[in-house]
Amino acid sequence: MFQKEAYTGQVEKDYELVNKQLKALIEDESDTIANLANASALLFQFLDDVNWAGFYLYKNGELVLGPFQGLPACVRIEYGKGVCGTSLKERQTVRVENVNEFPGHIACDSASQSEIVTPIYKNDEIIGVLDIDSPNLNRFDETDQKGLEEFASILSNHL
């Protein structure tokens, strides 16, 4: 059911498929950490040219590392700092074509060149962020943003 070969290569249709797969993965599970772990694994399998996919959870006024796939990462990020903190503060997805040009970028993996971060809210309460890094410049576009925002929405509705 979760084989990468099932994807079509048509990005919009593939996001529809991965979002359906996410729903199937989490529909009968109530544990947040288990669901976020499977969600990060699903994205890491699905997305090409990424070196990190995971979550930071909002706790006590800061973002704390949650389930992820990739190299070890920064454990804590201040609210409003870096791409993750900025996305959360601005309450919107932040796409960064070149992380080296983002003021205040927090470099957890020197191989990362571009990044997309989507905030996750439920009933106007901060849950955290979905963070994905790529070793390629300008990896993420509007189609990725739309698909990942839907992915985050599915998660927030189930958390």
What is shown here, in short?
The chain is α+β, with helices and mostly antiparallel strands. The chain has four helices and six strands. It has helices spanning 11-26, 32-46, 82-90, 142-158; strands at 52-59, 62-70, 76-78, 94-96, 114-122, 125-134.
Molecular structure report:
It is a single chain. This protein is α+β, with helices and mostly antiparallel strands. It has a single domain (4-158), classed as Beta-Lactamase (2-Layer Sandwich). It contains 4 helices and 6 strands. It has a 6-stranded antiparallel β-sheet, sandwiched between helices. β2 and β3 (76-78) form a beta hairpin. α1 packs parallel to α4 (142-158). The radius of gyration is 14 Å and the shape is globular. The chain starts with 10 loop residues before the first helix and ends with a helix. The mean pLDDT is 93. InterPro entries: GAF, GAF-like_dom_sf, Phosphatase_reg/MetRdx. This is GAF domain-containing protein. Belongs to the free Met sulfoxide reductase family.
Distance between the termini: 23 Å
> Which strand-content bin applies to the residues?
25-35%
* Radius of gyration over all CA atoms, rounded: 14 Å
Calculate the mean pLDDT score and round it.
93
Q: How are strands sequenced across the largest beta sheet?
A: 3-2-1-6-5-4
Largest sheet features: 6 strands, antiparallel
Helix content bin: 25-40%
Tally of contiguous helical segments: 4
Assembly context of the chains: single chain
Q: Tell me the overall shape.
A: globular
Tell me the structural class: alpha+beta
InterPro entries: GAF, GAF-like_dom_sf, Phosphatase_reg/MetRdx
Protein name: GAF domain-containing protein
Domain GAF: 42-158
Pfam families: GAF
